[in-house]
Structures are given as structure tokens and as C-alpha cells.
Amino acid sequence: MKLERIIHSLDAVVITKFMSDGDEIEWACATDLMSEVLYYSKDSSVLITGLTKQQAIRTADIADIRVVVFTRGKEPDTPTIELANEKRITLLITPYSMFTACGRLYEAGLRCCPE
Amino acid sequence: MDIKDTIEGSFHIVGGDFSRAGEASTEIKSILQSLGFNKEIVRRAAIATFEAEMNIIIFTTAGILRYEITPERIKIIAQDMGPGIEDIKLAMQEGYSTAPDWVREMGWGSGMGLPNMKKNSDEFKIDSVVGEGTTVEMVIYLDNTHS
Questions:
Q1: Is residue A77 within 8 angstroms of chain B, CB to CB?
Q2: What is the ipTM of this complex?
């Protein structure tokens, strides 16, 4: 799914952006548990999480995830945004809950990382 | 990729310091990337290293994360001065965790750390003495014949 479609489906606010609208995201990983991200995710995934801390960005970077979405409109603090800039991770905020955000992306055709 | 000698180094990790959590693993990942290793090998090594670093930060007062890269393999050794693990078999079970609530609020402590280190290594060894500390040794081979 193109990044543009993800942003549109989630009515997301773009905080940092290091990809083109047309870049493809293949999978989604939704969790607040960072070890689950490391265990189950694939590269070229979007991470959907309610954990709006530096740890989410650090974990995404280690796992080669280039897009992170924070749910429920939760705004990250400055160090988290700075880390996203440093690691060139695209950071989005959606007003939706994790359940709704996942539902909208599923409906748009995105699927969970295969185990 | 062309490594003739062993490349090695180490990082001191301070327990409880979440503000710098993951910096050592990120550094090791950058070194592996600069050596031109296959993306999947780098990813596996980075994930295994990150989990080991987080365990030192979460459970111990201090530890050392060492890396050793040869033409054949990447070796990561995480040695800590923590409380040690009483029942390693139990600790290796997915979902088993003794992490306190504040750690869970930071997104960690789901009981996947050690299984994740094992999953991403070709060789995984853990030695622990209660009251003294734990040493984890992980090897990732650079060709695919070992995995």
C-alpha cells in the first residue's frame, strides 16, 4: 500500500516524512509491546502503536521499519520527534484508536506481517 | 564484503537508563551495515543485540555488550552483573516475564526477549548464576548454510 493511502485512510497528521507518497508499505504490525515488533514484524512494515516514546522509534529503526503511526491523537515529546528525524523515520499521528486504525487499514487492503 | 581480520569492540551499558536504551545496538547495526552485510543478517543481529541490551537495562545495574566480527560470523556477548536467572528453562518460554510494571509501561517486559534472541541467532548460549549475573552469547553466521 502506498504511503499516501495510509495517511489518507488514517486521516493522519504527518510529523516527520522521509518517504515519497508513492512508496510502498507491504505489511502492518500493531502493538504496544516492543519485543512483539522485533519478533513478528517484517521490514517494509508500518508500526501502529500507542507507545509514543523514543522506544517505539528505536525499535522501528532496529527492525528496519520506516513508518510509525501513533494512535488516539497522542502527540510524542520532542526527544521522540528528534529521534525520528535522526533515524529518518516517517512519523504519523492518527486520531483513531488502534482498533479503528487497524480496521481502516485492513479495509483498505493492508495485511498483518506474516508469522 | 571483505573482512580480513577480526573486528571487535564493546559498550558499557548502565542499568535503568532508558534514555539511552538501544544506542549501543544502533551503533553495532551501523557497523554491520558499513561492512556491507546482507540486510537480513544485519536485521537479525540488530534485533538479537537490542533485546540483549534491553535485558541489561531492565534487569541489572550494569553490563557489557561486546561484538566480534570475523569473515565467517558475527558474535555478540552480553554480560551483566544482574540478579541472575533462577530457572533458565522457564525464562526461555515465550511470554514468561519477571519485569515490573514500569518496564511494561515503557513497552518492554512481554517475555519475548530471550526467545527473540534465540530466534535470531544461529547459536545461542546462556549461562547464569543467581546473585552474580548472566552471560548470553549469540552467533550469527554470514553465509546461509548454518541457519
A1: no
A2: 0.88
Those residues whose C-beta lies under 8 Å from the C-beta of residue B15, and which sit 6 or more positions away, are B56, B57, B58, B59, B60, B61, B62, B63, B80, B82
Distances (CA, A) of A84 to A57, A67, A89, B19, B114: 6, 10, 5, 14, 27
| CATH, range B7-141 | 3.30.565.10
- By Cβ distance, the residue of A39, A61, A79 closest to B116 is A39
What domains are there in chain A, each with its CATH number? 3-112 (3.40.1390.20)
Give the amino acid at B45.
Answer: A
Chain B residue numbers with beta carbons less than 8 Å from the beta carbon of A33 are: 107-108, 110, 112
Q: How far apart are the first and last CA of chain A?
A: 19
Nearest CA in chain B to A61: B26
**Nearest residue of chain B to residue A86 (CA atoms):** B26
A42 close to B (CB below 8 A): no
The pLDDT tens digits along chain B (147 residues) read 567 789 999 999 999 988 889 999 999 999 999 999 999 999 999 999 999 999 999 999 999 999 999 999 999 999 999 999 999 999 999 999 999 998 998 899 999 999 999 999 999 999 999 999 999 999 999 986 554
Task: Give alpha helix (H) positions in chain B.
Answer: 23-34, 39-59, 88-91, 101-105, 113-119
Question: How many whole angstroms from its chain centre is CA A29?
Answer: 8
Assess contact for B70 and B110: CB atoms under 8 A. no
C-beta atoms of A33 and B113 within 8 A = no
